[in-house]
């Protein structure tokens, strides 16, 4: 209202709606809504945190929400990647915690504001912490049960059959072999599972039950698995090992369980023509395995192993092995044939 419209000596009446107020000396304020009873670790500077939030002004006016995008907000904390008030307010939280963080403008978007946030506005963030980790974290293993005889432990090269439930730290179930009614089978150390899972299955005995917590850099990383695992998610695997078949020494795909015949080539070359074809070679190796005299690496395609063994022996690539080409592993270290 222009001053010329106000009569002299007039008493003025103003109806005021107070939207918010703050003092330049104000810090953030934190109100804990839900704090889990079991809080083994609180967030600290340098952690990577995934959380949901609703953002409003002090009068309740909505301005943003991660829920509306159906994905968490993910950030490092304590390092300036978010506004100063949130950077501070996200320190010291527990996984699963819900808290309200009130941020004065000088620790938020300042006098200019941003987007639909007015200048000099006090901001209210209601957050729910989904999980967090530190890039220096390794896996965490908690063993819940070990059988009385737990002397044979899993190692690289062993063939394992196990059940698992996979979930997020907030309990969201991702996958379960129990629900599928079949085990998950791998060769340990062969890259068939994420690195954290491979680490978590080491030194485990048949019948043991354990929980393995895997940070994203040892799991599915920032990308996650589309439609299955969120990006940068910490994973929880509840595992029961059901079967272990001992692997072979590193570098071997086939071994002899006893003395090797001094006339090995002649035994393989059944027709005595001085040449071994793939069919002869395969028949002989499988017969040794069936009789217990030899062993193929468990968990791999047996035919592919035998074919690779034959190819290594067939040095000139003509589809047949001669006595001159034929060598055992200890006779030529760079090959893994026999």
TrEMBL record:
Where does this polypeptide localize? Endoplasmic reticulum
Q: What class of enzyme is it?
A: isomerase
User: Which residue numbers delimit the EF-hand domain?
Assistant: 256-291, 301-336
- Which stretches does UniProt call biased (Basic and acidic residues)? 315-338
- PPIase FKBP-type domain ranges (all copies): 46-133, 157-245
Its main subcellular localisation, reduced to a broad class, is endoplasmic reticulum
Gene Ontology cellular-component terms for this entry are: endoplasmic reticulum
GO molecular function terms noted in the UniProt entry: calcium ion binding; peptidyl-prolyl cis-trans isomerase activity
Q: Which InterPro entries match?
A: EF-hand-dom_pair (IPR011992), EF_Hand_1_Ca_BS (IPR018247), EF_hand_dom (IPR002048), FKBP-like_isomerase (IPR051989), PPIase_dom_sf (IPR046357), PPIase_FKBP_dom (IPR001179)
Q: Does the keyword Glycosyltransferase apply?
A: no
An example of a Pfam family matching this protein is FKBP_C
Ranges where the record places region Disordered: 313-338
Q: Could you tell me the EC number(s) of this protein? A: 5.2.1.8
Query: According to its UniProt entry, what is the function of this protein?
Result: PPIases accelerate the folding of proteins during protein synthesis.
Stated name of the protein = peptidylprolyl isomerase
- The encoding gene: FKBP9
């Amino acid at each position: 209202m222009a001053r010329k419209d106000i009569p002299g000596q007039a008493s003025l009446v103003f109806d005021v709606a107070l939207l918010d107020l703050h003092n330049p000396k104000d810090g953030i304020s934190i109100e804990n809504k839900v704090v889990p009873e079991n809080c083994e670790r609180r967030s600290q500077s340098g952690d990577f945190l995934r959380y949901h939030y609703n953002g409003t002004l002090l009068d309740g006016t909505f301005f943003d929400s991660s829920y509306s995008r159906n994905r968490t907000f993910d950030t490092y904390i304590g390092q300036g990647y978010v506004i100063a008030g949130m950077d501070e307010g996200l320190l010291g939280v527990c996984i699963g915690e819900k808290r309200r963080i009130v941020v004065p403008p000088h620790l938020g978007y300042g006098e200019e504001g941003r987007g639909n946030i007015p200048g000099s506005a006090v901001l209210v963030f209601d957050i729910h912490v989904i999980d967090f980790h530190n890039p220096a974290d390794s896996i965490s293993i908690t063993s819940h049960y070990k059988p009385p005889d737990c002397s044979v432990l899993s190692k690289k090269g062993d063939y394992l059959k196990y059940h698992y439930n996979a979930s997020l730290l907030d309990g969201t179930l991702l996958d379960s072999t129990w629900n599928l009614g079949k085990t998950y089978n791998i060769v340990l150390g062969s890259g068939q599972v994420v690195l954290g899972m491979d680490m978590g299955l080491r030194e485990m005995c048949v019948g043991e039950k354990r929980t393995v917590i895997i940070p994203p850099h040892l799991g599915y990383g920032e990308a996650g698995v589309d439609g299955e695992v969120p990006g940068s998610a910490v994973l929880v695997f509840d595992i029961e090992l059901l079967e272990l078949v001992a692997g072979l020494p590193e570098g071997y795909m086939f071994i002899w369980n006893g003395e090797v015949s001094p006339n090995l080539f002649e035994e393989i070359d059944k027709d005595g023509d001085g040449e071994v074809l793939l069919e002869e070679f395969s028949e002989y190796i499988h017969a040794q395995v069936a009789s217990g005299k030899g062993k193929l690496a468990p968990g791999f395609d047996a035919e592919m192993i035998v074919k690779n063994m034959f190819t290594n022996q067939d040095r000139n690539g003509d589809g047949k092995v001669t006595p001159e080409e034929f060598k055992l592993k200890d006779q030529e270290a760079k090959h893994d044939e026999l």
